[in-house]
Specification:
Helix 1 packs across helix 2 and helix 1 packs across helix 3. The mean pLDDT is 94. It is globular, with a radius of gyration of 14 Å. The relative contact order is 0.14. 47% of the residues lie in helices and 0% in strands. It is mostly helical. The chain has a domain of 53 residues.
Length: 85
């Protein structure tokens, strides 16, 4: 018996902060999963109030954030505005 759950996926055109996308893509590559799978996992964990990452993965995220100069954190949530690049 398989634990897989069949779902219907759609293409979305959401806009996300540039450095955040770079970190997410690098993390997905590190975890050997697609970017979509990573985001789905993060959201499903968040909906249950659970952390999606173990201590080791959080450490890797912090390393990747340094590479891409991502200095944003949860305190910036819902406060980001579009700017000139």
């Amino acid at each position: 018996m398989s634990d897989n759950v069949k779902v219907d996926r759609i293409q979305t055109g959401m806009r996300i902060e540039k450095r955040l996308v770079k970190v997410l893509k690098a993390l997905a590559e590190y975890l050997d999963i697609s970017l979509g799978d990573l985001i789905e996992g993060i959201v499903l964990h968040a909906f249950e109030g659970k952390s999606p990452f173990n201590e080791e993965t959080v450490g890797k995220i912090n390393e990747i954030k340094k590479i891409y100069n991502l200095d944003l954190d949860a305190s910036h949530s819902h406060k980001l505005t579009e700017g000139m690049t």
